[in-house]
């Protein structure tokens, strides 16, 4: 299924009058307080988030997986799904592939299909947390950190192959997330595991094309429950520094212990020019993979405040690779992604409204109350008319979820693909 421009224009007509009055009112009041509204809308329109190839089907937990009818059964269909989301939201202009779940059969055909949907290939992801069929060595006791040289070599070779695949598609970054760690005290020697990991990462890094970046992700627990080899941002940063200039830390919102001050981590990494990638999701307890902004929208806003500050002030930090990394098992995956994109745009728009000059003045005057007021004034502004306007100007839907439902997208996908398709992924 492909959504036609005309279909969206017809749907948008219905809500246009209402939108225009809301937008005009907001734009006027923002302009009066010194906000350059067109510039904010331009930034919102430019902000593109990659959709991972594993998020288009229903996710599973270790207890079970309830597939969603009409799931994409091939990489082609996954790209078509992202195309649907992108045409509605105009903010999902990239795909992040997971290898080996989504190895293309025909590279040219896949590139052409993606180009047709205006989708670029973002960072590619390796997988050494599962054993694949006919794989010689097992990752049961770790991959890049394993005590066995044969296992480490196999894992290194896999990462190099992922880079090769990504390179053929136009990707420019490799994301490494390791499940390596230990579930019981004494199982691993921490120093040996870290040393092996560093050396393995260096071997992957040195083999990458010169214009590629390496993103090193961290996670404090799960699937190992006593220790993980790359448990936190400090360890990731240390490993990135050990690899070289084009190795960076990747922050995944769900990969922190409860109440961690993620915005501060973001800020410090950008100051050091070492924040490379960013994974969006939300969680109540742990790595719950919930819809972005569904639990802690204010925390997301505070994180975006630091991202915006960093993008404006830290030229030493490269452009970031943005991706949604969430996959759960109860909602229509496409509706869930649309909601996530909306939450990301909302937090970004609100952060862009913060009066940075006034904030700096208040900080220097130690006016703590004013500092809080400035942040919360931006946070309490209903920015949705700005996001809608950005979508409207680029041919998207005023109300993506409503349009998705009005166009019967899921029904059409089921008709095309059947009831019992299952997407590759967890
Ligand atoms: Mn992640």
From TrEMBL:
SUPFAM superfamilies: Xylose isomerase-like. Keywords: Isomerase, Manganese, Metal-binding. GO terms for molecular function: isomerase activity. InterPro entries: L-rhamnose_isomerase, Xyl_isomerase-like_sf. The keyword Manganese applies. It comes from the Bacteria. The keyword Secreted does not apply. PANTHER family: L-RHAMNOSE ISOMERASE. This is Sugar isomerase.
